[in-house]
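protien #1 (seq + structre)
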Amino acid sequence: MRLNSLKLRHFRNYDELDLTFSKDLVIFLGENAQGKTNLLESIYVLAMTRSHRTTNEQELIEWNYPDAYLGGIIEKKQQQIPLELGLTKKGRKTKVNHIEQKKLSSYIGQLNVILFAPEDLSLVKGTPQLRRKFLDMEIGQIDSVYLYNLVQYQQVLKQRNHYLKQLAEKKQTDPLYLDILTEQLVTFGSKILWTRINFVKQLEYWANALHQTISQKKEELTLQYEVTVPFQSVTTIEEIESAYNQAFQAIRSKELFRQMTLIGPHRDELIFFINGKNVQTYGSQGQQRTTALSIKLAEIDLMKAETGEYPILLLDDVMSELDDSRQVHLLEAIEGKVQTFLTTTTLEHVRDKMTVQPAIYHVNQGKLEGENTE
């Protein structure tokens, strides 16, 4: 998969921008606060329809303009496919091959991206919410059904929490509706859990192989998906549903007291282990960073296995955050494999370690000047 061109109109600090990419490595070079990260963000938004930096879409639109436009032509399976995304105060409008897409799941997955930013080094030691978001974003790109189930689950969860509060405050007296909401939550939650468990197994397979290479086979990386309901078996979705139903019956009074849904995928956790020890709790900073790097790089091969195409890699100023050894492993893992867009304030960390000639764009206050771009 490749991104052959990018077009921006009133996105962040870019009034108008048209770029064509012919090389596998594209470097955006410049000082901080000049717009380098905005360029990577635009590619991410074009792929995912939302930003990794903000939940307020108005921040993506250039100051004093009513809307923003992002467009690109991707190449996959020997086809050229135009993607378009419009952002307005009323919402988003997406097009694939000039045809408007009514469903988000019909658009996401057309362009697969993996973003690696300095904050991703906190994937291991950050909050459980951060790791759940990681799972949702990555699975959603390769499984449109998962994305649908997730949206439905979140809607029912919001309704159920609201109704629990109303029952607890005696504003509602019909527990039957709570049963209906619980049944819906179990249906969607079981499918989400089933998909996550299988995804984590695949991720562990690819990540452990990379981690052993980086650690020179001194460390073995394992992943554990920790659920809020103890399952005797998870060989079928039906068994998950049964366990969820029993658990919800057992904690109903506790949920009414707390006025919230206490079990389900929204409270699950992803745990990382090195040689059997919890990396979040007992791992050194180096081990935590190596784990995060292994996980991000594993996504490349996992997406290739699932979709038949390598994703596009976005590296936002991470080279300076990694030591020389991890830099080398990162670059070896991507060379000749994926189209990569990289931001940096200096070429010191990149130039001597790359065997390919990159296209370099000097970024200064939202203006670009190209070098080796043909």
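ok now protien #2
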Amino acid sequence: MTATLLKEASPPPAAPADHDRKRRARRRARVIALAFVFPALLLLGALVVYPVLFSVGRSFFDASGDRFVGGGNYTEMFRDPATLKAVRNTAIWVVIAPTLLTGLGLVLAVLVEKVRWATAFKLLLFMPMAVSFLAAGIIFRLAYDEDPEKGVLNAAAVSVHDTFKEASSYPTARARDGQGLTKAADGSYGTRATASPGDTVGLGLVGVRAEDLPGSARPAYPAATGKASADELRGVVYLDFTRGGGGEQGKVDRTESGLPEMRVEAVRDGAAVASGTTAADGSFRFQGLDPGSYTVRLPASNFAPPYEGVSWLGPALVTPAIIGAYLWIWTGFAMVLIGAGLAALPRDALEAARMDGANEWQIFRRITVPLLAPVLTVVFVTLVINVMKVFDLVYIIAPGPVQEDATVLATQMWLVSFGGGNNQGLGSALGVLLLLLVIPAMVFNVRRFRGSQR
């Protein structure tokens, strides 16, 4: 009786026609999906797969592409000093830039939560992401210019330097040949002949620009004709040049200007025994000198060239300078992503730690950072992939003479292939090397995304 009831209650088996209909529907759905995906797959194959396969194949041929060289390009790649320097610079980029950006983004994301205008602050920091690398490179090329009249960083550096240390009085001044002054190895000038207390010494210089003369400068003639007392050594430092011509070299003429604020020393037995600064008419006097012979010296500090700032784009600093430009662009990206992860943190854990007496530093170090570890890892790995491919900033910011000192794998690949090397076999090998370096980071990132979705 029970078996009969169960048999009557079970649904009738599906007809073969229903199975065929469902199978055809699934097949049609797959065909429609493939039709929609096919253009994207075709584009992906044309722009990604084919270039990768072609580059791999091209890397086994010589520069002309006619002769098969096997692994010769890969061997040459690691023998070339420029390529080794590119690998070294790329390693510096991979270690420094993502680390600084992740740390800076974390600090800013935590601090922004505590300011009133958080949205405006985030917008301000994220704004450089809207600037292309080309435009950013031009901006920082100008900012890093060594001329303080053009480069804003050197203008600031020179202003700070000149605030704490005075510039030299007459950087372009020099003595006439054969006019009684000799130049020492350290850049100072001294008199050939000796002088004694009671003498008056004239020190004529040329090469002083009109704009370098202080407004307080007065004619030197009255000081040059004055008489010294028996226990003093007097003299005058003057511009040995008469406007409009005329005058006599080595002699103070009536219209020639004194050189004020010039440091002067009286030297005996190689040591300075007295020093002073010239007055508005260029005069100086040393009183109370012991009897004997002295030479008068103008120290090199009077003629030192003005401070011109830092050579930001020199061989030593060009890579850190470019990394600084990269930080300016990508700091907002790291801050926004870490800030999104920070907003998703469980607030009850933070409040519980505060109630237990933990200070803000302990909360940040023991709770916030461990909970943000997945987000920090994703940001770091994403930035690693990005810096391995950096090209625009390096190529635009680094001047030609230091291009080799700043080169990375991406720029080296372009320079070898198209920038004058014309060796696309070696350039393809560099591209394959760059691809092999990027793939592990990409695989790691994909696995992290899949793990977070699960």
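The domain at 72-156+312-453 is CATH 1.10.3720.10 (MetI-like fold).
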